[in-house]
């Protein structure tokens, strides 16, 4: 049985992860949050021991750590976990900037611990089926992707997502990374250029970060992809968000709507809600994290995957600010796996 610690409860996914961990028979040793009041309240609500000091929690013989703090606190918590020899599952994006994101990967590599990025969409069966079909050549040559990752303003769930200091940006930092990772995973290569535009037309009086954005990713083989990453749903929308994308290829098109399997609920805790009944990709992701610990191997989604996707989001913000495309060196954005559990990454590999 793996002994797991939770560091940070700011991210809304932590409420699901605790149930996923228990379903996998992992032992949740304790939880820490820099906001002691928030951490203790969450701990009480979920019957988890609360620790006021993260080092005291990590000293309890922890096998793995799940980081669900605000993005700005990821680096310090990952470094603490790595120094304690615990495997890490870190929420996305890895950091609020490139230096923090790179430091997270470097810290785990130098400590010889496994680092996994929280990309549950990788485990959706429609996404894996599309990847398999494209890799087999069933659809011929791929020409383009178009995708949407839209949601309500996060003020309803967790307001810190709209805080530049804590999140690193707004809708673009929140929503680009998932599709950027999926596209690169399907194609087997990262983009070499990013162009993006954004605005704050929606909710312009409520926040100071971008609330709508469109990114265009260009790949070395001529494929291009779009990501609509907007917070454009009304606050009373039945679901917090959704993600869909399509592929255009020689033989036709493929389309996936990842959150389509859902019931419609009227009344109860909310006037109108969509209740998912399909595959729990969070559970599959947590199962993979625990299996990687148990089998002492790299997880299917690595820290380098997270670094690559975060770099795309940061490039999109840069492009939107300057009005120019941002070039990314493909062979320095994404590596297939870490060199090994004890081998540190080279400075050249990390010098994106």
Tell me about this structure.
The structure is a single chain. A hairpin with a 5-residue loop joins strand 8 (212-218) and strand 9. The protein is α/β, with parallel strands linked by helices. It folds into two domains: 3-113, NAD(P)-binding Rossmann-like Domain (Rossmann fold); 121-278, Dihydrodipicolinate Reductase, domain 2, CATH 3.30.360. The longest helix has 20 residues, at 303-322. Helix 5 (98-111) runs antiparallel to helix 10 (303-322). The protein has a seven-stranded mixed β-sheet with strand order 11-10-6-9-8-7-14. Strands 2-1-3-4-5 form a five-stranded parallel β-sheet, with helices on both faces. The chain has a two-stranded antiparallel sheet with strand order 12-13. The protein is built from twelve helices and 14 strands. The model is unreliable at 330-352 (pLDDT under 50).
């Amino acid at each position: 049985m793996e002994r797991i610690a939770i560091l940070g409860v700011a991210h809304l996914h932590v409420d699901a992860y605790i149930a996923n961990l228990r379903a996998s028979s992992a032992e949740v040793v304790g939880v820490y949050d820099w906001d002691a009041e928030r951490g203790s309240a969450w701990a009480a609500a979920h019957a988890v021991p609360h620790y006021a000091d993260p080092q005291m929690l990590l000293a309890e013989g922890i096998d793995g750590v799940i980081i669900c703090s605000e993005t700005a606190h990821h680096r310090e918590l990952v470094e603490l976990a790595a120094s304690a020899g615990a495997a890490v599952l870190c929420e996305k994006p890895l950091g609020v900037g490139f230096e923090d994101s790179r430091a997270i990967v470097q810290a785990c590599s130098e400590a010889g611990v496994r680092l996994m990025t929280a990309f549950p969409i990788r485990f959706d069966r429609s996404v894996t089926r599309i990847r398999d079909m494209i890799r087999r050549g069933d659809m011929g040559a791929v020409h383009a992707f178009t995708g949407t990752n839209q949601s309500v303003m996060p003020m309803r769930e967790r307001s810190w997502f709209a805080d530049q200091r804590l999140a690193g940006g707004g809708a673009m930092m929140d929503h680009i990374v998932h599709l950027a990772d999926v596209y690169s995973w399907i194609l087997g290569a990262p983009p070499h250029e990013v162009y993006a535009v954004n605005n704050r037309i929606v909710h312009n009086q409520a926040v100071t970060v971008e609330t709508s954005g469109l990114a265009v990713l260009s790949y070395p083989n001529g494929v291009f992809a779009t990501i609509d990453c907007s917070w454009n749903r009304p606050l009373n929308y039945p679901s917090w968000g959704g993600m869909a994308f399509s592929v255009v290829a020689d033989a036709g098109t493929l389309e996936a709507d990842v959150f389509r399997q859902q019931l419609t609920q009227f009344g109860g805790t909310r006037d109108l809600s969509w209740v998912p009944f399909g595959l729990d990709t969070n559970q599959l992701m947590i199962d993979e994290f625990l299996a990687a610990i148990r089998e002492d191997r790299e997880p299917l989604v690595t820290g380098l995957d997270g670094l690559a996707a975060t770099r795309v989001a940061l490039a999109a913000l840069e492009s939107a600010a300057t009005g120019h495309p941002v070039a990314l060196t493909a062979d320095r954005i994404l590596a297939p796996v870490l060199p090994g559990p004890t081998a540190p990454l080279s400075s050249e590999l990390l010098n994106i």
